Amino acid sequence: MHTVSLDPWRQDHRFLGRDHARNERRLWLVVALTAATMGVEVAAGFWFGSMALLADGIHMATHAGALGLSALAYKLARRLEGHPRLSFGTGKLGDLAAWSSALLLAVAALWLVGESVGRLFAPVPIAYEEALVVAVAGLLVNLASLALLGGPHEHEPVARDHHAHHHSAHHLHHDHNFRAAVAHVLADALTSVLAIAALIAGRVSGWSWLDPAVALLGAALILRWAYDLMRSSGAVLLDASPDHQLEAEIRNRLEQGTDRIADFHLWRLGPGHLGLLVSLVSDRPEPPTVYKARLADLPGLAHVTIEVHRCSDHALSS
Question: Which domains does the chain have, with CATH numbers?
Answer without folding.
Answer: 7-237 (1.20.1510.10), 244-317 (3.30.70)
